[in-house]
Design brief:
There is one protein chain. 29% of the residues lie in helices and 26% in strands. The protein is α/β, with parallel strands linked by helices and 207 residues long. Helix 5 links the parallel strand 6 and strand 7. The longest helix has 16 residues. The chain starts with a strand and ends in a 5-residue tail after the last strand.
Length: 207
């Protein structure tokens, strides 16, 4: 059984205490929605879990995964930036991310990438350069790597950004399927993201 837990976490950025004494626990099949006003550390918390920001105090633990891998290597992190190469096609961008995330040119990788593009509604645009994509389509392509490479922990920062109603419904379906498969989701958002049973961690302004 997988479990992600943080206890008494503290984060300092630019000499400012973003948060302290922050604790949470997330079991397999659960989602935690991190809410609160701008500047309270929602993004910093996700980046801390991903290993992109230094933890100044506390303890972060992940149980049930590969002991040889870090928490970040068990996780997908989708931030504000879509991180796409405009000169590459939609399929080439996804193949790059699959390789970067360790999937490599394994047998069946192309089939999995095609399935991922289909899941986010971009299968008909696979050969189109990413520079031609709308903001919503770029977001869908960023989310496609969640499907192309299997990782148990999804760290999603404002995942519905630029998505229309159809796109938000698609994302909610992907997240529910991930949870049904015993995945874990830690998401930062200002409002609902389509997971009615998600737990909530509301952050306030640090004193």
């Amino acid at each position: 059984m997988m479990r992600l837990a943080g206890s008494n976490l503290a984060c300092v950025r630019g000499g400012r205490q973003v948060f302290k004494d922050l604790s949470f626990a997330l079991d397999a099949g659960e989602a935690l929605l991190v809410t609160g006003p701008n500047g309270v550390g929602k993004s910093s918390l996700l980046r801390l879990v991903a290993g992109l920001v230094r933890m100044d105090a506390g303890r972060l633990e992940f149980e049930g995964g590969d002991p040889e891998l870090t928490i970040g290597e068990h996780a997908h992190y989708v931030g504000h930036q879509d991180a796409l190469k405009s000169s590459l096609t939609v399929r080439e961008n996804l193949a790059f991310w699959a390789h970067f995330l360790g999937e490599g040119p394994a047998k069946g990788a192309a089939v999995k990438e095609s399935a991922a593009l289909s899941a986010v509604g971009l299968d008909g645009l696979a050969r189109l350069p990413a520079s031609y994509l709308s903001a919503g389509q770029r977001r869908r392509l960023s989310l496609a790597r969640l499907i192309a490479v299997d990782r148990p922990v999804w760290l999603l920062d404002e995942p519905t950004t630029a998505l229309d109603t159809v796109g938000q419904t698609m994302l909610a379906q992907l997240m529910r399927a991930h949870l049904a498969n015993s995945g874990l989701i830690l998401a930062a958002a200002h409002g609902p993201i389509g997971l009615d049973r998600a737990k909530e961690l509301r952050l306030g302004v640090a004193p």
